[in-house]
Design a protein that fits this description.
By secondary structure, this protein is of the alpha/beta class. It has one domain (5-377): 3-Layer(bba) Sandwich (FAD/NAD(P)-binding domain), CATH 3.50.50.60. The protein contains 14 helices and 18 strands. The protein has helices at 14-24, 49-59, 62-67, 90-93, 101-112, 158-163, 234-244, 252-258, 289-292, 300-317, 322-336, 345-349, 354-364, 367-379, and strands spanning 5-9, 28-33, 44-47, 73-78, 84-88, 97-100, 117-120, 124-130, 133-138, 144-146, 148-151, 171-181, 197-204, 207-211, 218-223, 265-273, 280-281, 284-286. The strands form four sheets. The chain has a seven-stranded mixed β-sheet with strand order 5-4-13-14-15-12-16. Helix 1 (14-24) packs parallel to helix 5.
Length: 398
């Protein structure tokens, strides 16, 4: 096998999934993650359809996911007095199986930690492609050279920035922000049945607040010009949410009063990654949200695990020849990633006007919404999933 030493940036979902397959095919895998350890909790993510389930079964983790699954959440939209206006089915928002991001990351990490090197608390600072590898400099650790480098580091990918160019050239802001606050009731230590539950949401023009459900204790979504804040400054992020929702009634004042007490708090833009023709450049490849992310579009996690399966399988088939494998990966995933389309969760869930809110509520009860759900089911399986050879590397993963 050629090009055996590989570096993966990111230890959330795409990174450990890719580490699993590359190790299984005989590659020497190192994963670097800027966080000091696995990120627990996080919002709930989901898988849908035969294609996703096939990959999870081949990884041997489908039953683990089912054991840690969250409950299905139906969202009831209400006016400021609590009157029910519309219902968004949890079958639409939660796929066929839903799990907290942190729980899925832990499952995948445990499948790879014994056989792959993980470098927590560090990140890539520079990449220099050589004739026979990639020279990688780290923020803290010593520089090293790898045969191949993979960016599985999310929509704000450092690998993409260093290899392809600035984020603004590849990430389109879609006009909204979202915030998840408070651990899900199905966090790691939670007990009790994982059943169907109800969350309640209230809209004001350009704003949405949701209380309860499996995603998190609170979820906010709002229209805004692009904001300038540090992604590490949660105090400023909390203040932004408090200021945006200061004039919203219903249960929002109570929700805002609890924000300061939540350790789990995350604010980010709703954006879409738009690569220009390829997810690879030289010896570097992007996988998951760094390549084809679209915030809250509903297919990101499935795309990540399928993309990891495809690029690793193509490398195995090509005996490590990245020029052949990367070309095939680009061809396959550009077709499948079209599932993301130009969807904008913010525009749908936090309409700009009162009339838009009324039309969204009408749509949720219409036959067109049922047809859209069926289309989503079909799109999730719109790939000719290859059955790559069951090669096993120097360390068998059970």
């Amino acid at each position: 096998m050629r090009n055996q030493s590989v570096l993966i940036s990111g230890a959330s979902i795409a990174g450990p999934a890719l580490a699993y397959w590359l190790n299984r095919y005989g590659f020497d895998v190192t994963v670097v993650e800027r966080a000091p350890g696995l990120r627990p909790g996080g919002q709930a993510i989901d898988f849908k359809g035969k294609t996703h389930f096939t990959v999870l079964e081949r990884m041997g983790i489908l039953e683990d996911i089912k054991e840690r699954r969250t409950g299905t959440t139906d969202t009831v939209f209400v006016d400021e007095n609590g009157k029910h206006l519309a219902v968004m089915s949890g079958d639409f928002t939660g796929g066929d199986v839903e799990i907290l991001r942190g729980d899925l990351a832990e499952i995948m990490y445990k499948r790879t930690a014994e056989h792959c090197e993980y470098l927590f608390g560090d990140s890539i600072s520079a990449l220099t492609e050589l004739s026979d590898g990639v020279y990688v400099e780290f923020e803290h650790g010593p520089a090293r050279t790898f045969d191949l480098v993979f960016g599985a580091d999310g929509i704000h990918s450092r690998v993409r920035k260093l290899t392809f160019g600035p984020e603004k050239d590849f990430v389109k802001y879609l006009g909204h922000y979202y915030c998840v606050a408070g651990a899900s009731p199905w966090s790691k230590d939670a007990t009790g049945p994982r059943e169907r539950v109800t969350a309640y949401g209230h809209n004001a023009p350009g704003k949405l607040a949701i209380s309860g459900g499996s995603k998190a204790q609170q979820l906010y979504m709002f229209m805004s010009p692009e904001l300038d804040y540090s992604r590490d400054d949660t105090a400023t992020q909390r203040r932004i949410v408090e200021e945006v929702y200061a004039d919203v009634n219903w249960d929002v004042p109570r929700m805002l009063s609890e924000i300061a007490d939540f350790n789990d708090f995350y604010l980010d833009s709703i954006s879409q990654v738009r690569m220009q023709g390829a997810y690879t450049k030289g010896r570097v490849a992007l996988v998951g949200d760094s390549a084809y992310g679209n915030t809250l579009a509903g297919f990101g996690t499935g795309l990540a695990v399928v993309g990891a399966y495809v690029i690793a399988g193509e490398l195995a088939v090509a005996d490590g020849d990245y020029t052949v494998a990367f070309a095939r990966y680009n061809e396959i995933m550009q077709g499948y990633a079209k599932i993301m389309g130009n969807s904008n969760a913010g525009r749908f869930l936090a309409p700009k006007t009162g009339y838009g809110i009324k039309m969204r509520n009408w749509f949720l009860g219409s036959r067109m919404f049922t047809l859209m759900m069926k289309y989503a089911d079909k799109a999730a399986n719109d790939i000719d999933l290859q059955d790559y050879p069951a090669l096993v590397g120097p360390t068998e993963i059970n």
